[in-house]
Amino acid sequence: MNKDEEKIRKKSPVQIRNKKASFEYFFIETYTAGIVLTGTEIKSIRLGKASLVDTYCFINNGEIWVKGMNISPYFYGSYNNHEMKRDRKLLLTKKEIQKLHAATKQTGYTIVPLLVFIDEHGRAKMDIALCKGKKEFDKRQTLKEKEDKREMDRAMKHY
Questions:
Q1: pTM of the model
Q2: How far apart are CA 89 and CA 117, in angstroms?
Q3: H-state helical runs in 27-93
C-alpha cells in the first residue's frame, strides 16, 4: 500500500472495520477490492450502516465473494430495499484471485475482510487480507503487547 492509498483511506468519511481480525489472524498480504452493490446498499454504507462482524471471503468459479457482511436496509428505501446479509461479489484481477485461491488451498489460510471505505470517486472499496489463524498463545501475546503499549502511553502522559 503506497502513501496515496493510505491518505485516501484516512480521508474517507466512512471506515467500517473488522476489529476482531487483527486479534484472530496474522495478515500475510492485503488487497483492495471493489464491491458489487445493488440499489440502496451504497446509501446505507455511506451512512455507516454496515458491519464486518463474522465475515469471510471465499472463491467460487474464479470469482471472489464476501459472505456474512451486514448492510442495514436504507431508511428511505421503500419496497425496493436490499437484502441485509447476502453474498456480495468483490472485484479483483484474475491474477490476484488465482494467487489467493492457490494460497487458501493450504491449511490454516483464509481471506478476511478488514475495512470498508469510500474512495475519492465515491465508490465502496474493501480491504481484504490473506490471513493465517493465530494459536491461543499468539492471542495472549497480542493482548500482552497491547496492554504494555497502553501502560507506556499512560506513563508518558504523566511526564
A1: 0.80
A2: 16
A3: 41-46
